[in-house]
Structures are given as structure tokens and as C-alpha cells.
């Protein structure tokens, strides 16, 4: 498999080349999704818009993101391992690559902000057990600060440490969730009702996808590890697809058990803590608290997974002088993009901290920053889906499968985006898409002003559609 030199990277980017095993690459994508936390809260969230079509909404979302994953892997097969930024830039030009990368990095950081708020929510019952009062600003800020500091230390020490810590925490969380779901299912029995609940239609399935697809964002984050992944041409494609399959299977199982145990969506939506209530009903009350521990672990793993991916994007931009050149320098000992990590960690903490000090509760923070962050992911996914058939056609390969799969992926994402805008949601949600558009416009202006003067010109790229991306001296 040919190697790829990122359009925004020197041929030697200073990172620890080939240091990640295939399992650790998979761990990066799984950590970026935080599937156990999403599986715990996702069914009720999707039910708010999808009605009884929760299970089908997750099935459809899994299919759409597998199509996007296929497009990513097609790029890996023809161009070598690289970031989504590389593939977008190779197809639409460096400006589109930079703007798309800013959108994706924006999404990574905002999702990390959201999960810090999630940590505040799910750590509250555990802190209450040991007599620590919750609900105040001080405790919330301490929880977010401790999580951010711990994640930063793990990421600076090395991507192997942070990904291994992430996969261990996520594996524990997934195991706990599966055990709880199994206990509840054995207690309540198995029925077919979740597959034909009232309100299950094609329209409600599509509407439910708007929120269901949020549970998968971050599955592509392994693609940002092209330099550090061992046997990247094999490990990254497997991680991209397997992370969607793992998450999708977990979401389907959790949706089925929750809907079956609650007897539909009404009681599910009325529950403030569905899994804790199901644990009580199955006479395993302690497992509710155990699950809270697992969800907190999953959220922490998501912080490291998201910021690991975002830091690689900023490191690449620093190497190209699109950002300050110091950001493109790797740590002399640990070979990690330490300055990018410090910057991102600070921003990740400050956003929810400022909102907390302003009086915004953790649930609202989670919803607001998570929603706008998702636009960053979807924008980049859409560009990749559109770029895939173009790239295959330029390579003089059979473009029919790429046109069909890329077209279906793009259509699915556009449909999801449409239903996130119409009918127009209430304020402040109705302003979020325009705020994200403002971020993209600022990125475009920045590139127009600075990109032409970077020390490695994109004009030096060899645009050979059939071969790997390389830098021409």
C-alpha cells in the first residue's frame, strides 16, 4: 500500500510513525464515538422525534454511515492512508481541504465539550453516594477540570497511552452495559413489540435519524492517525467499518431492551434515568450506579479520542504554516503534537466552564454544543461522500459503485441535515447552523489571507489521480 504525505504535512511530521497496532487504531475510532454512553441515552433521544421508529432509525443511520465509511476506505485503497482533509483537498483543492478540516476539528472540540457536560450529569449520583453535594457550579467545574487535566496528561504522554486507556475504559463500559441489558432482558422476556410500535413509519424513521446519527460521529477519527498507525492501509479501513458495526449493534440492543422493558416510548420518555430505573425493576439496583461509572468512563474516553484526532489536524496545519509553525512541532520525547493538545484542552474546558458560570445547566450545555459540533462532522462526511466518485473517475477506475454508494451517502446526509433545519427549531437551536456557517466563512477568509504564503505551496502537489499524494521538491 503506498504511503501518503499529507498536503498539510512535511514528509516527516515528527510524530511517532507506525506506533499504533491495528487494535489501538480501532480503539481510537471507538473512543471517539463513546458508544456505551450514546447507547444509554440515545434511544430516549431518538424517540423524541422518531416516535416508535427508534430501532429502525438506528438501523438506517448505521447503513448511511457504513456507506460513508466505504467512501473513506476507497480513498485509502487508491491514495493510501491519510486524513479526511487529505482526501477532500486532493479532490476539491487545498482551500476546501482546509475549510473542511476546520469544520471537522470544530466538531471534535465541541463534542469533547459536550461529553465534559455529560460527565457532570452522570457523575452526580456517584458523588452523592460519598456525600459530595452536587448541582452547584463549583463541583461541576472541578469535575470538568479533573477530566481535562487527566485527558491532557494521557494524550501528551503518547497516543498509545491515551488510546489504550480509552479502549480499556470503553471496554469496561460496554461490558457493564451489555451485562445490564442482558439482566433486564432476562427479567422482562423477549417480545417483538419494539419492531412494530405505534407511529412506526418511513417518515418517522427518517426523522429519527436526525438524532440517531449523532450517536456515531467520531467513527472516522482513526483516519487522522495515518502517520502513527502501523500497516495503515489495513488497520484504518477495518477500524472505520468495525467501529460503526460495534456502535450500531450496541445501539440496536439497547434500543430493543429499553423499548421492550418500558412497553413503548411513553414510559421511556418519562424516565429521567432509564437504565437506573430498569436496574431497579430487575432488582439489581446497584447496577444502576455501576452503569453510571461505565458511562463516565465512556465519556472520558471520548474526550481523549476526540482531542487526539483534532490535535493531529492542528499539527498538520501548523506544519504548513496555516497556523503558527510551533503547533506543527512534535514533543521531543513523546512525539505527540503537544502544543496542539494544550490549546485544544484549554478551549475544551473553557467553553463549558464559561457556560456553567453563566448559569447554563449541564444538560443544556450537552445539547447545545453537541448539536453544533455535529454539523462539523456531517459537513466533512458530506464532502467525502461527494468526492469519492470524483476521485475514482479521475483514477480511471470503475466509478459506478462509487457513484451509487457516494450518492446514497450524500443523499442520506443531506436529508438528515434538512430535517435538522425544518421545521425551524426554537431558539437558540435555530441559530446554531448559522453559527457553524460563520466558522466556515472565517476559515475560508483565513485561508485566502494566509494559505498563499505558507512555506509549502499546495501547487507543489503532484495531482496524479492514480497514485499516492506526494510533495514535489
Residue share in helices?
over 70%
CATH-assigned homologous superfamily:
Amino acid/polyamine transporter I
By CATH, the architecture is named: Up-down Bundle
Indicate how many domains the architecture comprises: 1
Mean pLDDT: 79
Silhouette: globular
Low-confidence stretches: 1-13, 455-473
The end-to-end distance, rounded to whole angstroms, is 22 Å
Strand content: under 5%
The assigned structural class equals mainly alpha
Please give the largest β-sheet. none
CATH class: Mainly Alpha
Radius of gyration: 22 Å
One letter per element, helices H and strands E, the order comes to HHHHHHHHHHHHHHHH
Q: How many helices?
A: 16
Number of separate strands? 0
* CATH T-level topology: Amino acid/polyamine transporter I
Tell me what the structure shows.
- By secondary structure, this protein is mainly α.
- It contains 16 helices and no strands.
- The longest helix has 36 residues, at 94-129.
Amino acid at each position: 500500500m503506498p504511503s501518503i504525505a499529507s498536503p498539510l504535512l512535511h514528509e516527516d511530521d515528527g510524530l511517532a510513525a507506525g506506533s499504533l497496532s491495528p487494535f489501538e487504531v480501532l480503539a481510537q475510532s471507538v473512543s471517539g464515538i463513546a458508544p456505551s454512553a450514546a447507547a444509554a441515552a440515545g434511544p430516549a433521544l431518538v424517540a423524541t422525534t422518531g416516535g416508535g421508529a427508534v430501532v429502525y432509525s438506528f438501523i438506517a443511520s448505521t447503513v448511511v454511515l457504513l456507506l460513508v465509511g466505504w467512501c473513506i476506505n476507497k480513498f485509502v485503497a487508491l491514495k493510501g492512508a491519510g486524513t479526511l482533509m487529505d482526501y477532500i483537498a486532493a479532490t476539491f483543492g487545498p482551500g476546501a481541504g482546509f475549510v473542511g478540516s476546520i469544520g471537522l476539528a470544530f466538531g471534535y472540540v465541541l463534542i469533547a465539550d459536550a461529553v465534559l457536560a455529560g460527565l457532570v450529569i452522570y457523575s452526580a449520583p456517584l458523588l452523592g453516594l460519598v456525600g459530595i453535594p452536587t448541582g452547584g457550579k463549583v463541583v461541576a467545574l472541578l469535575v470538568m477540570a479533573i477530566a481535562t487535566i487527566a485527558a491532557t496528561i494521557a494524550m501528551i504522554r503518547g497516543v498509545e497511552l491515551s488510546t489504550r486507556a480509552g479502549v480499556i475504559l470503553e471496554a469496561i463500559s460496554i461490558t457493564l452495559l451489555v451485562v445490564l441489558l442482558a439482566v433486564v432482558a432476562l427479567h422482562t422476556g423477549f417480545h417483538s413489540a419494539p419492531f412494530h410500535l405505534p407511529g412506526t413509519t418511513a417518515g418517522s424513521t427518517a426523522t429519527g435519524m436526525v438524532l440517531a446519527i449523532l450517536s456515531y460521529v467520531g467513527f472516522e477519527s482513526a483516519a487522522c492517525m495515518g502517520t502513527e498507525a502501523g500497516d495503515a492501509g489495513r488497520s484504518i479501513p477495518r477500524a472505520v467499518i468495525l467501529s460503526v458495526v460495534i456502535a450500531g449493534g450496541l445501539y440496536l440492543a439497547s434500543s430493543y431492551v429499553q423499548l421492550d422493558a418500558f412497553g413503548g416510548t411513553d414510559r421511556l420518555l418519562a424516565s429521567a434515568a432509564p437504565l437506573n430505573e430498569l436496574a431497579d425493576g430487575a432488582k439489581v439496583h446497584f447496577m444502576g450506579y455501576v452503569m453510571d461509572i461505565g458511562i463516565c468512563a465512556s465519556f472520558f474516553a471520548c474526550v481523549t479520542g476526540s482531542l487526539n484526532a483534532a490535535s493531529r489536524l492542528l499539527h498538520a496545519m501548523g506544519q504548513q504554516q496555516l497556523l503558527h509553525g510551533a503547533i506543527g512541532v512534535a514533543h521531543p520525547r513523546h512525539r505527540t503534537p503537544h502544543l496542539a493538545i494544550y490549546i485544544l484542552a484549554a478551549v475544551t474546558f473553557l467553553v463549558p466552564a464559561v457556560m456553567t458560570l453563566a448559569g447554563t445547566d449541564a444538560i443544556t450545555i450537552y445539547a447545545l454544543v453537541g448539536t453544533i459540533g455535529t454539523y462539523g462532522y456531517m459537513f466533512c462526511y458530506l464532502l467525502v461522500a461527494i468526492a469519492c466518485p470524483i476521485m475514482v473517475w479521475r483514477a480511471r477506475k470503475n466509478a459506478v459503485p462509487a457513484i451509487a454508494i457516494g450518492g446514497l451517502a450524500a443523499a442520506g446526509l443531506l436529508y438528515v441535515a434538512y430535517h435538522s433545519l425544518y421545521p425551524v427549531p426554537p431558539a437558540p437551536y435555530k441559530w446554531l447552523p448559522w453559527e457553524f456557517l460563520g466558522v466556515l466563512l472565517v476559515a475560508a477568509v483565513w485561508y485566502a489571507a494566509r494559505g498563499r504564503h505558507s512555506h509549502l505551496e499546495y501547487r507543489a502537489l503532484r495531482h496524479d489521480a492514480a497514485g499516492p499524494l506526494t510533495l514535489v521538491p
